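DM from R.C. (forwarded with permission)

"hey, sorry to bug you on a friday — could you get me a structure for this? deadline for the figure draft is monday and I only need the backbone to look sensible"
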Amino acid sequence: MSGAESPTFGVDLGGTNVRCGVVDRDGVVLREVREPTPLGGDAVVATMAGLVRRLAEDFPEAAAVGVGAAGLVDRDGAVQFAPNIQGLRRAPLRRALEAELGVPVVVDNDANAAAWGEVVHGAAKGALYALVITLGTGIGGGIVARGRVIRGAHGFAAEVGHFQIDPDGPVCACGERGHWESYASGTALGRMGREWAAAGKAPGVLARAGGQVDAVTGVFVGDSAQAGEPDGVALLAEYVDYVAIGLAGLANILDPERIVVSGGLVELGDALFAPLRTAFARRVEGPEYRPEIAIVPAQLGEQAGVIGAAARARDLEAGGSGVWVR
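My reply, with the result:
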């Protein structure tokens, strides 16, 4: 294989882990490795390069690397600001990784990469206008218009987790108060669970955490809701309403035909999506006068970032960059 037919490397740089996979042109992850996310730009580059080299031993024909990084990534592939990765500021990841590996590298925001993965191989395939929203440590977003991902003037578009819904709300990871992700991320669900447990309103959730309030996470809330426990169902319903606030606002502005939701919470299935669709229909402008906007789970799961970044690398290897528009 050669050129666009060769497999490519996809790297998903998140706040918790660095995942690296080698992916074929059909979006199949042939092999994947991962390491915990280190602190600081130099350590991040060393970790990513090490993971690529490990895979390259068995896939020497893969000669381009795509990276999706959680943060503000400019058009030169530098991460200017990453609120959920300590020490990653003004980091020229693309240039550093190319120097380290000696192969072409493209770096973009992780949610943009995941969005492109869903467009090419997943739940957004065939949609001209779509939103891809990732509910994880924070909230990431990708905006698809006319089948292409919009990056904005500086590459920073679709930082959807960071619009303010309450100026007096909780402090976001970026330092501002009341951003959407401080209410509607997976991290926020865990915080809500601990608050409810401390107030004695979530006995089922607390029991799943061994009776320790500090041990409550969003996973326990989701498990409780899936089991039909009243406190878990009620807690998830309140959380889902915050998710719907953001989705409805974005839909009012962008008018997508489809909203794809990704992240670990997608595994909750109908326990998440049924109340989310109801809450969204209650909050979007004129629901009875507009075509229904489908809200669907992502198809690529936790591999969306790796697959999308590898697809970006495939486009780079083919000599193009046409999937991105301002």
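R.C.: lifesaver. DSSP finds ten helices and 14 strands in the chain.
me: no worries. The first strand starts at residue 8 and ends at 13.
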